[in-house]
Amino acid sequence: MGKNGYLPLFETRPARGLVFFRSYAASIFIGICFICFHRVSYFPVTERWVWVGMFVAELWFSFYFFITVIVKWNPVFRCTFKDRLSSRFEEEELLGVDIFVCTADPRLEPPTMVVSTVLSVMAYDYPPHKLSVYLSDDGCSDLTFYALLEASGFAQLWLPFCRKLKVEPTSPEAYFQTTPEPVDDAFMANEWLIIKKTYEDMRIRIESMTRLGKVPADIRKEHKGFDEWDFVVSRHDHPSILQILIDGRDPNAIDIEGKALPTLVYLAREKRPQIHHNFKAGALNALLELAGFDGNGGPCYIGTGCVHRRESLCGMKYSKELIVESMAMKYDRKIIEKASSIEENCKALASCTYEENTPWGKEMGVKYGCVVEDILTGICIQSRGWRSVYLTPQREAFLGMVPTTLLDTLVQHKRWAEGDFQIFLSKHCPFVYGCQNMPLKLQLSYCIYLFWVPNCFATLYYVFVPSFCLLKGISLFPKISSSWGIPYLYVIVVHRVQSLVEFVWLGGTVRGWLNEQRMWMFKRTTSYFFAAIDNILKLCGFSKSAFIITGKVADDDLNRRYEQESMEFGTSSPMFTVLATLALFNLFGLVVVGTNKAINDDARIKVFDIFGFQILLCCVLVFVNLPIYQGMFFRKDSGMG
């Protein structure tokens, strides 16, 4: 029992298997100590700078490993009891919930996918008069507005259907793809088919309109909202567009069963070429293995799949008195103004100059001036004393799309790494900005992301220099026959085995793990490297931040290869030039050493004893780069761009 005799709404459980993880971490620490002692004790007379470089790279890897251990040292999981919510609060006491769905480009984020997301959140099991859904369209597309208009009509059928059948998942696209027709009830089967047919008809209309690329004049006349696009010059030059498609305060806003519908709003924030619009952060102001973070003081905000208290986003500092006051506030839904009046009055809030000379984007709302506005906003919220928790219910609370091609993934991680390192170099660095209210463990946990960029230098050194020195006959590791080789071998093998066990335990496959190891190296040698270059250029004043949208469109062949865990390359890129150069260089080094006829059998054994670790490292790198070689020499499918 909790305070005041209430049963708790959730409980916190420590992760299982911590003894094994901590034992593993302690053994790796001992192995690292032996490696460091060897590097210092056996300092060579010649080629000392190459040796120093290896030692510095290994020190960096060790430092990053310790940060990872800190994050994973005390993970916790939250378990909620939804059935107790109704016994604690009356319906009118529940807080109002605003849900923001963001989109930016109908070509990369199909409107059918967007409205399916909107419909899924509209169908939440929550009092509809306490629920408002906002679609923030950064692309100002009349195609997206048309799709949302279609969805507002379909919601009148979809929401009662979800209540009646207790539909899971509540996204119609996902539901009809995964759920078979009910066969034990003829009436429900007939209704199921009707709803599916209605949804498919709507989807076909939206997709046809998307392919057409414009909304025909006869359809534009059916809703006054399309008149707003008469003043749109381009997606980068247009006034504020705000349309309330469903006004939840209106007693006539009901579904086919007479139940109230949630509020549904379309918003395209004003853009002008001469005024910076702050990308998604500006639109949001107009409107998650994280378990380790939770144990260290609260997970970071990663932009999606999260719930905020309005007070935390409005720049307020946390206090118990503030929470008590907010809980005591009444949620008044009485109609004071007509929806049309609200639309006109609120357009000023979505203007591109609204936040000028105000705290918005600085002390209030989602932060501006950084391409990872989510991480920066989370740091600012936690530095004001707010606490975050990580929740992973048995049924996924949020489902989203991820990049399915290698290039999209690398570009996305470049943007993230670039922004994260910007935060580290700024006044918002957790060690400075959050030192008063953020626990030291939480400040260190952020380094997992903030230090992605420096990772590239140590990784590039380890990927290139040992193979280069192998060709030059320079040994950088202990002999195979030496006992000093044991710590190197132990740290490398045990660290990777633990990674594999963890990946499989969380539901992955061995092939998926291998691809993760490849992506680990590809990101460090390209995404983080290019992010480092961009950060240097920004510090020198030669470039500015740019927001890049990753594609969400995937054809059937691409989806099939993705499900088969086959690497998809996409179009050509300078990043692939770096990957191909490193892959070919390591292959060349291995071939030269393996085919050197000047070395007889006895000498070959001696060479392997001296250079064994470098040869093994070269073999591992060649194995990791197998998809690169396949893409360059063997694959002919469309996944090669």
Automatic annotation (TrEMBL):
UDP-alpha-D-glucose binds at E109, D138. GO terms for cellular component: endomembrane system; membrane. The chain crosses the membrane at residues 21-43, 49-71, 446-465, 528-554, 574-595, 607-629. It comes from Gossypium darwinii (Darwin's cotton). Its main location: membrane. One of its GO terms (molecular function) is cellulose synthase (UDP-forming) activity. It is a multi-pass membrane protein. Gene3D superfamilies: Spore Coat Polysaccharide Biosynthesis Protein SpsA, Chain A. This is Glycosyltransferase 2-like domain-containing protein. One of its GO terms (biological process) is cellulose biosynthetic process. The active site is at D138, D374. Keywords: Cell wall biogenesis/degradation, Glycosyltransferase, Membrane, Transferase, Transmembrane, Transmembrane helix. InterPro entries: Cellulose_synth, Nucleotide-diphossugar_trans. It is found in: Endomembrane system.
